[in-house]
Amino acid sequence: MESLTLEQYRRMVDKVLEFKRLNGDLPKYAIIDGCRIEKREYIDMIERVNKFFLEMGRNPGTVDIAPIDDISTVEKISI
User: Fold this and answer.
1) What count of Cα atoms within 13 Å lies in the side-chain half-sphere of residue 32?
2) What is the pLDDT of residue 8?
């Protein structure tokens, strides 16, 4: 699974927040519909969704799981 639907994302966030409320710390990973999402990945997802909501004024339809720094970037070339 490379992305979550908005419903799956909300369930993941609910589970993460409930774990934090009960244990005082964020879980090392979250499992949604058999997909294991590491802490670094779900924190990045939450930050991206919050940024999207602030900039666009609406929620995204899907949320990619891969952290931003794992996505290839364009290399700058000096001329």
Assistant:
1) 24
2) 92
Residue with tokens 């609406």: 58
pTM over 0.90: no
Q: Are 41 and 20 in contact (CB under 8 A)?
A: no
Residues 46, 37: Cα–Cα separation, whole Å: 12
The two three-digit tokens of residue 20, written as one number: 């934090």
In angstroms, the CA 1 to CA 32 distance is 10
DSSP the chain: --EEEHHHHHHHHHHHHHHHHHHSS--SEEEETTEEEEHHHHHHHHHHHHHHHHHHSS--SEEE-S-GGGS--PPP---
Q: How far is CA 37 from CA 10, 23, 24, 55, 77, in A?
A: 14, 19, 19, 25, 35
